[in-house]
Automatic annotation (TrEMBL), chain A:
A single GO molecular function term of this UniProt record: NADH dehydrogenase (ubiquinone) activity
Name of the featured protein: NADH-quinone oxidoreductase subunit C
Residue spans of biased composition, Basic and acidic residues class: 155-165
Lineage: Bacteria, Pseudomonadati, Pseudomonadota, Alphaproteobacteria, Rhodobacterales
Start and end residues of each NADH:ubiquinone oxidoreductase 30kDa subunit domain: 27-146
Membership in a protein family: Belongs to the complex I 30 kDa subunit family.
Region (Disordered): 153-180
SUPFAM superfamilies xref list: Nqo5-like
From TrEMBL, chain B:
Iron in keyword set: no
Alphabetic keyword roster: Membrane, Transmembrane, Transmembrane helix
Pfam families with a match to the protein in the record: NADHdh
Membrane topology: Multi-pass membrane protein
Primary residence: membrane
Transmembrane spans: 12-33, 69-89, 101-125, 178-200, 260-277
Protein name: Membrane bound protein complex subunit mbxM
The organism of origin for this protein: Celeribacter persicus
UniProtKB/TrEMBL annotation, chain C:
GO biological process, one term: aerobic respiration
Residue span(s) of domain NADH:ubiquinone oxidoreductase-like 20kDa subunit: 79-189
Keywords, alphabetical: 4Fe-4S, Cell membrane, Iron, Iron-sulfur, Membrane, Metal-binding, NAD, Quinone, Ubiquinone
Organism: Celeribacter persicus
GO CC, any one term: respiratory chain complex I
Signal peptide (residue range): none
Name of the featured protein: NADH-quinone oxidoreductase subunit B
Pfam families: Oxidored_q6 (PF01058)
Bilayer-crossing regions: none
């Protein structure tokens, strides 16, 4: 793994790699280099499988983080590449020409985070949600509880117990001493 | 009165009685067969009167939606096929009551009625407009047409052998000893026809028309309430009526209701037993099966008569 | 209930009708100009009718007995409860002995089991399936999700009360209810039907406008006729 990173480091800007395990590593790369790195990893280094493409909403930093996880089956290596995008009008680079499956991930990200991927096939069609007009629901400024309370009727009478005190009361009603 | 020299009005009542008995017999028998299947699988199984309850429930449904005249006539045709098959074949040999309307050429008519219900169903299901119906009908028609071939050949072999198209006479020729049955006098024709029998009983491995798993549920997709009740009635009547023909032609007929019940049950169980141990054929596989095994057997049966 | 951030307000925008469903002018091959409105032309929009009971009480009771003993369930699974229904066919539970069967088409089914959480997208399909079933028909809600949202109480696309959208005859509580609970639910439903109280379809027809308003409040892209025969 380290040799691969050394080879990449000669030509690309890589951040500090985080090793989760010996065969799993995450590294931050620049946005304009991600396609080149992915192409090289796929064609030269044997990372033939795109495991997933997902996003994290860093709302405090006003950033979206895209995570491309690629896998080398033969050597059993997984490499995660992080790309940071500006949260305002976030636009990513499509990689559907490298892995056709990426088109589906990008469609999902478009719907759930509102990250645009110009050129990706069918990216603007609705994926899971039908007729969604609000903020993309996985964004952290979308308050899912408030949305659900404003949209769906509650049945009155629902209470929430703290599990610890509730079980204590049911199972040991006289604990602590003197309490009833 | 020249057309029906022996016709008497009371025969209609007798025939209706036969129909009544056969429908009830079919209701109970199919439920018993399902119960046997359940017991084999370790389940308790449905109650034996479940068919009656289902029928009543379907009749008791309040809303019906029709898709047109042919949609309405589909189940009617289907039931006509079953009833007609039963009506023109002697159910109990030698009994004046359950002789029904059998006449000299009834074998030809019986062959026609075996096919009639499927055709009617095709028209009705076609008008319901559901794609699953259309798929099921085309599969069913293709398969039934192929399954008819060995049956027709076997039946021709039989009529050559006995020199008649009258089922009553064929049954009469088989009386006396078990070795007079066509099963022993002409085993090739029997086997050819039994291939068709298994093929048209709508049981696995030849139930691709209904295909409960992939195209739920084939032709009757849009049928509900009373329409479905009609088809349910036919579904218990038709196999019994068809089995009666086979019983008459190949297995010596029946001289009493007890003999009838036992023989029909055993014949029906043939297709059931084959069904539970065989996975389903696709339609082209079953067609190939009938052409490869059923058809040569039928031809051989004719040649060796 | 947990306090809610009041700052977040949901936006309520209309979703435009899909292009192929919009009314438009079409030129036929022989040159005529005709107006077509796909939602009206291809579907019957008649509202559901309230169907009266049989005139005689004895007949109606008899019918109800038959309906109770021949419950045909639509094989339509939503959420995790669909997996709890399968054991009912197996030797251990064997629901067939109570006259319960699974049917593959809504036209032949009497009982719609909403087996768990119902997302808005699935609700649309459930409504269509329900409306195609012949009367009288029954709805059974499985699990806390159909009762008050259950663990999806704060989900953005899962409804919380099933009886807002469909008339429910019987709830089975649990998360998920085990097959034994389901069987008990079926027994209770049978009792309700035998007593002649299983009139959910008529209730739906009587309060049709209210049910439709509730349904349309959550299903924004309503691209089907109001009543699906």
């Amino acid at each position: 793994m380290r040799e691969i990173l050394y080879r990449l480091k000669d030509r690309y800007h890589l951040g500090t790699p985080t090793f989760q395990r010996t065969d799993l590593c995450f590294v931050t790369v620049r946005r304009d280099e991600i396609r080149a790195i992915l192409t090289e990893l796929r064609d030269m280094e044997g990372f033939t499988h795109l495991t997933f493409l997902t996003a994290v909403d860093w709302i405090e930093e006003q950033l979206f983080q895209l995570t491309y996880m690629v896998n080398n089956r033969e050597a059993n290596l997984s490499l995660g590449l992080r790309v940071l995008l500006d949260r305002e009008d976030a636009t990513g680079d499509t990689i559907h020409d490298l892995w056709p499956t990426a088109a589906t991930y990008q469609r999902e990200l478009r719907e759930m985070f509102g990250i645009k991927f110009p050129g990706s096939p069918r990216v603007d069609e609705e994926f899971i949600l039908e007729g969604w007009t609000d903020l993309p629901p996985y964004r952290r400024d979308f308050d899912t509880l408030a949305y659900s309370q404003q949209t769906y009727n509650d049945r009155p009478g629902r209470v929430t117990h703290d599990p610890k005190t509730h079980m204590q009361k049911t199972l040991y009603p006289s604990y602590p001493k003197g309490a009833k | 009165m020249t057309a029906f020299p022996n016709f008497e009005w009371v025969q209609i009542a007798y025939a209706l009685l036969t129909l009544f008995i056969v429908i009830n017999y079919g209701m109970v028998m199919t439920a018993v067969v399902r119960k046997i299947g359940a017991r084999v699988g370790g389940r308790y199984g449905i109650p034996v009167w479940q068919n009656y309850v289902d029928l009543l429930k379907n009749i008791a449904l309040r809303s019906k939606i029709s898709h047109g005249v042919m949609y309405y006539l589909g189940p009617v045709f289907r039931l006509t096929g079953g009833v007609g098959l039963l009506m023109f074949v002697p159910t109990i040999y030698g009994s004046e009551w359950h002789q029904n309307f059998s006449y000299a050429g009834d074998l030809i008519l019986a062959l026609y009625f075996v096919f009639f219900g499927t055709l009617g169903m095709a028209l009705g299901a076609g008008e319901s407009g559901h794609p699953h119906s259309a798929i099921g009908v085309s599969r069913g028609l293709a398969q039934v047409t192929m399954a008819e071939l060995p049956l027709a050949l076997g039946v021709y072999a039989l009529s050559l052998q006995y020199g008649t198209l009258d089922i009553t006479k064929i049954v009469a020729a088989q009386q006396g000893s078990i070795f007079n049955w066509t099963l022993f006098t002409n085993p090739l024709a029997t086997v050819a026809a039994m291939v068709a029998f298994v093929g048209t009983m709508m049981r696995s491995p030849f139930d691709v028309a209904m295909a409960p798993q992939e195209i739920p549920i084939g032709p009757p997709t849009e049928y509900h309430s009373s329409y479905l009740a009609l088809m349910q009635t036919n579904r218990v009547l038709f196999p019994v009526a068809k089995t009666v023909i086979y019983m008459n032609l190949f297995f010596g007929g029946a001289t009493s209701w007890a003999e009838f019940a036992i023989k029909v049950f055993c014949l029906y169980m043939i297709s059931v037993v084959i069904g539970v141990v065989h996975p389903r054929f696709r339609v082209e596989q079953s067609i190939r099966f009938f052409l490869k095994w059923g058809l040569p057997l039928g031809v051989l049966a004719i040649l060796t008569v | 209930m947990k306090d809610v951030d009041d700052k977040f307000r949901k936006t309520d925008t209309e979703v435009p009708l899909r292009e192929e469903l919009r009314p438009r002018k079409v030129t036929t091959p022989d040159g005529q100009e005709i107006d077509i409105d796909p939602l009206r032309d291809y579907f019957c929009e008649a509202k559901p009718k309230v169907h009266p009971k049989a005139y005689s009480k004895i007949v109606e009771d008899f019918y109800n007995w038959a309906r109770a003993n021949s419950l045909w369930i639509l094989g339509f699974g939503t959420g995790c409860g669909a997996i709890e229904m399968r054991p009912l066919m197996t030797p251990r539970f064997d629901a067939y002995r109570y006259g319960i069967q699974w049917r593959p088409t809504p036209r032949q089914a009497n009982l719609l089991v909403i087996s768990g959480y119902l997302s808005v997208k699935t609700l649309k399909r459930a409504i269509r399936a329900y409306e195609q079933m012949p009367q009288p028909k029954y709805v059974m809600g499985l699990g806390s999700c159909t009762i008050n949202g259950g663990m999806y109480w704060d989900s953005y696309n899962t409804i919380k009360r099933l009886d807002d959208y469909l008339p429910v005859d019987m709830y089975v509580a649990g998360c998920m209810p085990r097959p034994e609970a389901l069987l008990h639910g079926f027994m209770e439903l049978k009792r309700v039907i035998r007593e002649g109280k299983g009139e959910g379809a008529n209730k739906y027809a009587e309060n049709f406008d209210q049910y439709k308003a509730n349904q349309k409040a959550v299903i924004k892209d309503w691209d089907m006729p109001d009543y699906n025969w």
